[in-house]
Design goal:
The protein has about 140 residues and is of the alpha+beta class. It has a single domain, classed as Beta-Lactamase, CATH 3.30.450.70. The chain has 3 helices and 5 strands; from the N terminus they run E-E-H-E-E-E-H-H. Strands 2-1-5-4-3 form a 5-stranded antiparallel β-sheet. Strand 1 and strand 2 form a beta hairpin. The longest helix has 21 residues. The radius of gyration is 15 Å and the shape is globular. The two termini are about 15 Å apart.
């Protein structure tokens, strides 16, 4: 069973620009993934405003019975979030590494238009390697 179910990247205005499904059960269609991304963007924005702590950056972890959702927001407002098995550790470091891949292979790509869906082969290849390494590391724990 895969520890990581899916990965989402949402632009600063709430649009889904990347989605990758890693789970074998419960695959979502395109409309469902768009709804999840939109819902998370809204919840994240509302939580920033409702937080009693000044300077709150929003929800970073949502724990449920059947999954955990870990989120990393870059300084530009782009959100990276992964849905994984409950109790999965070290997702924050994986999300930061995925952000590094995003900056290296997407943002530095001269053919990529900001805020548009990500279609970059080098990003896909390196992302697959990063997720595979994480799965291997999780099996070893």
């Amino acid at each position: 069973m895969a520890a990581i179910y899916s990965l989402y990247i949402i632009n600063k205005s709430g649009g889904l620009i990347f989605y990758k499904d890693y789970g074998s059960a419960g695959r979502m269609d395109t409309n469902d993934s768009l709804r999840v991304a939109s819902l998370w963007h809204s919840m994240h924005a509302i939580s920033q405003q409702l937080s009693p702590i000044a300077g709150c950056s929003g929800v970073e972890l949502l724990e449920a019975d059947t999954f955990d959702l870990h989120c990393f927001q870059s300084l530009t407002g782009t959100k990276f979030f992964v849905v994984c098995e409950p109790g999965t550790q070290h997702m924050e470091s994986l999300l930061k590494y995925i952000y590094e891949l995003y900056t290296d292979f997407v943002l530095k790509n001269p053919f990529y238009e900001m805020e548009m869906p990500i279609r970059c082969e080098l990003f896909d290849i390196n992302l697959a390697q990063a997720v595979q390494k994480e799965r291997v590391a999780l099996l070893g724990r």
